[in-house]
Every structure is written in structure tokens, then in C-alpha cells.
Amino acid sequence: xxCVSTRAASARTHFLSSSFTATATATATASFSAATLxxxxxxxxxxxxxxxxxxxSSSNSDPNPKPSEFVExxxxxxxxxxxxxxxxxxxxxxxxxxxxxxxxxxxxxxPIARVRSSSLSFTHMLHSRxxxxxxxGSYADHPAHISVVTNYxxxxxxxxxxxxWASDDITGxxxxxxxxxxxFTFLKLKEGVEExxxxxxxxxxxxxxxxxxxxxxxxxxxxFSPGRAKGFSIGSVAVFKGMTELExxxxxxxxxxxxxxxxxxxxxxxxxxxxx
Length: 276
Description:
single chain, five-stranded antiparallel β-sheet, Dabb, Dimeric_a/b-barrel
């Protein structure tokens, strides 16, 4: 899709952000084209994961699936500087309207509160949660979703990036409470990083929740849509009660620096965004 829809400045909550962000490289930037938007439609899901996608009916929908049973979907947009404010509002409103579709467990779209990156400048994002990869495919193929992308998104954006991962070992509801603040972190690994290196990174990121009690939920996983992720292969989202709790952690970088040092050798660049 749009995949514009949870396990993991110089601060504690940077989650390997502020120090890593300095390593961000220009290679993270990709030119925007119609080909960039094509992955929104999630066709790879049909051939790779499921031969045919059946829409999830509301009668089969479980509003509180087990934490291990859902997929995170994040789409980042860069809105054109000359875009009319009314067109931007229409894009956001219509994206949020997709929350009513059956394959969607949670969806929220809006402006990004803060971007911690020296090379990427996204302005808006969409975060959604789905029961499974096939349900994410059903959402992407839904006529309502395609209509929103065609009529409200494509005409006003210059760039897009999307990352998807399966949740793993998290607690709490898949529905992010109203008023919550979220910090999304995307990691681009150096070439040649082996599985042992990835496992070390996952261990460090997943362990962050134990070190920062204000994190109410942490989701982390490996991206399974590499074609539209600009090289970022690991995604995480930390959920806080509100922006006050998120920003409060930015005053202490000691623990964040300790965690960063454990995996610095594996990272090429890091993108961190705050969303409220």
C-alpha cells in the first residue's frame, strides 16, 4: 500500500537513534517515481505468501488477537512543498477512513511530529496493524484503499517509503490508545551482516523495554517488503502514554549510548520518527 499504518537528540529513547543517526548516509534517499508507488498494492504478497487473498469478514474479526498474531505496516510520505493545505487534509482524512475496512485492526495517519535523520525528510505517515500478511494484502487490494492512493495520495507526494514486519512477543492490545505517542526506528544494516549480527541487534532492541519502564509496548521485526524500504531491514515501534513520557526520556543518553555501542558495528544508518 500505502502502507503509509509494535517491539523497538542524544537521549535515552533514541533507541539507538541520536548516536546512530550521525551514521545516516545519502544512500537512504531514493528518487520518487510511479515505480516507487507500485509496491503500495502489495502484489508480491499474493505470489510469495498466499496464492489467493480472501477478505477478512467482520464476523471473523477478533478485536483482541494474541500479540504474536499481527503485522505492523508503516508508510512514510513526503508531501510536496507546494501542496494545497486542503489537499493534505483530504489525504490524511481519507487515509484515516480506511480504518473501517475489515482487514484492519488499527490504523492512524497524520503528520510526523519529528524526524531524526540527516538524509530523509518525510512529512506524514500511516501506521496500521493487521492480523496476518494475507490480511495486509487484502487491505492493499481493497478498492477503497486503491482509490485513496490514486486520488488523494499520489497527486501530492514526492517520495514514499514503507516497512512491514510481523510482531513478536509483545504485550497489550493491538489497538494503540488515543493520545499515545510512538517512536518508530528503522535500521539499515551494513552489507555482509550475518544472522548472528541480526540476532544481536534484535536482542538489544527488544531489551530496551526492560530498561525504560515508560515504554508501554515495543514491537520489533525484520522487514518483509524490501523493495520499497530504501534498504532499511529492521523496524520497531515503541508506544508511550503520551508525548510527555516520550520526550522525558530525551534528557538522559547514558543507557541509550550503552545499547548503541553494542550494535554500532552492524549499522549503516538509522531513521527515527516520532508520531502522535
